[in-house]
Amino acid sequence: MRVEFDQWMNASTAAADVKRVIESCVHCGICTSVCPTYELLDHELDSPRGRIYLIRDMLQGAAVSARTRDHLDRCLTCRACESACPSGVEYGQLIDIGRQEVERRVPRSLPERIKRTLLRRALQNRPLVRVALHVAWMLRALMPASLQKRIPRRPARTGAWPTRPHTRKVLTLLGCVQGTVAPGYDRALARILDQFGVALVAVKGSGCCGAISQHLGAPQEALQAMRRNIDACWPLVEAGAEAILLSSSGCGSMVEDYAHLLKDDPLYATKAARISALLRDPVELVGSLWSTGSLPLAPLPAGQEKLVFHPPCSLQHGMRLKGRVELLLQRAGYQLAPVSEGHLCCGSAGTYSLLQPALAGQLGSRKLDKLMASQPQAIASANIGCIMHLQKDSPVPVRHWLEILADRLPAGERT
Questions:
Q1: 301 and 399 together in one domain
Q2: How far is 32 from 298, CA to CA, in rounded Å?
Q3: What are the pLDDT digits (tens) for 85-108?
Q4: Which of 209, 290, 330, 388 is spaced 20 to 30 Å from 219 by Cα?
Q5: Domain count, the chain
Q6: Cβ–Cβ < 8 Å for 90, 39
Q7: Boundaries of domain holding 271
């Protein structure tokens, strides 16, 4: 697929990367077989190949319209196409650049801009999220059923963060929404690592990984979030922190991209590369530690053996760690039934479920049908967004795999 950029794009620092990505596509169409939106809409321009054509034409100077923007908006950025592509097309990088360019050429209406700005600002404001959720939990019983199920469930009480001192330390970011909606994920990770003599340190001054801004048309705001997190982590990195772990794979996949997104920043490129190199998903470190040590899990209660695992797109396509969590759960004694269409997105995709509720709802229902086919007692996953999205309509609990394991630690280690 040849490309000749217009004058504006040729002057961009991203031109060489974009040209390489576009020209690596041989338009074979394998990506269409794994694309959720193509599966639902059966439209070439709602497939990765079709969107690549749209982006190429736009960057060559072709006229664009709101319809162009709609086709790019409907992409979940699940990156299933990257896992399937025999040519190694880095579609995730391209769709971000395409969205930024269509935002520049076809500005959204004022109400749309206000909605997206409020969404970005609200979700990244931890105190505001906390207050809003507490009000929603208080008034939940007065709301109609359709609205009740959209409100995240109040988090269960969990044990305190371990305080035993350890020489080995790994870092985690404070994040944004997850700290209020599901604080137990990080505590579960901390308790598991504590069993292996590793301390999990929540980095003061850190915050949202930047994904919300990046995917809502505010790349400069995203870069500022990345720089803030790098600055907050850097003293601890220099002091010998072994790794950076994030309990939600969507955030981990974003931090893994810091090196690419900040490669042209003369002040942060080297530091960003170091931060990305330190990034590990919890399954990598826990799996490594467990292979040489022991995790004192209580026996499984009768009737709780049957699980299914929903691998988030960020874990299986973004970080390429498909099948790793399943192995740990099986080692812990769970019976995991195979799930058909495991590569397809559940429809959460960050803020996608809020901005594209119809498509997200269809994908969520389809995913739950596949997950419930074996009649499991619970669904396990690894990303806050997926868990919240599936839990709305799931007949069984949807939980993070870290909490599932941590709940079986000896009682003395949970407090």
A1: yes
A2: 45
A3: 999 999 998 998 889 889 888 889
A4: 388
A5: 4
A6: no
A7: 168-286
Q: What are phi and psi of 378, to 5 degrees?
A: -160, 160
Number of H helices, E strands in the chain: 24, 8
Reduce the DSSP state of residue 24 to 3 states and report it: helix
Query: In this structure, is residue 159 part of a structural domain?
Result: no
Q: What is the CATH number of the domain that holds 193?
A: 3.40.50
> Alpha-carbon distance 385 to 341, whole Å?
19
Q: Helix, strand or coil for residue 122?
A: helix
210 with 306, same domain: the answer is: no
Each residue's pLDDT tens digit, 283-303: 999 999 999 888 999 998 877
| Percentage with pLDDT > 70 across the chain | 96
Residues 301 and 409 in one domain: yes
**55 and 74 fall within a common domain:** yes
At residue 156, what is the residue type?
A
CA dihedral 243, 249, 250, 253 (to 10 degrees): 50
DSSP-based helix, strand, coil % in the chain, nearest 5:
55, 5, 40
In a domain, 312, yes or no: yes
Neighbours of 124 (CB within 10 A): 20
Left, alpha or beta for 79 (phi > 0: left; psi -120 to 50: alpha)?
left
Same domain for 96 and 115?
A: no
Strands 198-202 and 244-245, bridge-based pairing: unpaired
Angle at 392 between CA 389 and CA 394, to 5 degrees: 100
Q: Which residues of 268-299 are buried (b: 16+ CB within 10 A; e: fewer)?
A: beebbebbbebbbbbbbbbbebbeeeebebee
Cβ-proximal residues to 46 (8 Å cutoff; 6+ apart), any chain: 35, 37, 38, 71, 74, 75
CATH number for 335: 3.40.50.1860
Taking phi first (over 0 means left), then psi (-120 to 50 degrees means alpha), and beta for anything else, what does residue 333 get? left
